[in-house]
């Protein structure tokens, strides 16, 4: 099991819970900035999950072009189902952000007064 899968399976719940916007705003002082940070982290998580899935499925890939040789692989289907059951990257990123597990910094030089 990969590091990402262990991390994801440990801190998620099966239900979606409402989050307090005031808590998100308190982390950065700006709700929209907090949402942008969460969105960037969700994108990172999504890319990692996709790469991991494609690497695992590549093991079962057949590189021939013949349609007769295409068949269902039970292991491949189980891997795909396991990734489908994983929580949404946006929910994971929000949880990480609220638990102060996301590092972010500001580039104050480009801000307008």
Helix amount: 55-70%
* Order of secondary-structure elements: HHHHH
Uncertain segments are none
Say how many strands there are: 0
Outline, from the CA principal axes? elongated
The average pLDDT value, as a whole number, equals 80
- Percentage beta strand: under 5%
Outline the biggest β-sheet. none
What is the radius of gyration computed over CA atoms, rounded to a whole number of angstroms? 19 Å
Q: Given the structure, what is the number of helices?
A: 5
**Structural class by SSE content:** mainly alpha
Q: Could you tell me how far the N terminus lies from the C terminus, measured between alpha carbons in angstroms?
A: 48 Å
Describe the protein:
- The longest helix is centred in the middle third of the chain and has 28 residues, at 31-58.
- Helix 2 crosses helix 3 (31-58), helix 3 (31-58) runs antiparallel to helix 4 and helix 3 (31-58) crosses helix 5.
- The chain is an all-alpha fold and 113 residues long.
- The protein has a domain at 21-62 and 72-103.
- It contains five helices and no strands.
């Amino acid at each position: 099991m990969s590091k990402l899968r262990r991390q994801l399976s440990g801190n998620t719940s099966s239900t979606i819970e409402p989050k307090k916007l005031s808590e998100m705003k308190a982390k950065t002082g700006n709700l929209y900035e907090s949402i942008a940070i969460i969105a960037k982290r969700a994108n990172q998580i999504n890319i990692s999950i996709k790469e991991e899935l494609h690497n695992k499925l590549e093991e079962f890939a057949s590189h021939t072009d013949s349609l007769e040789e295409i068949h269902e692989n039970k292991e491949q289907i189980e891997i795909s189902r396991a990734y489908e059951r994983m929580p949404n990257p946006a929910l994971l990123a929000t949880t990480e952000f609220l638990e102060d597990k996301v590092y972010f910094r500001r580039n104050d030089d480009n801000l307008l007064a």
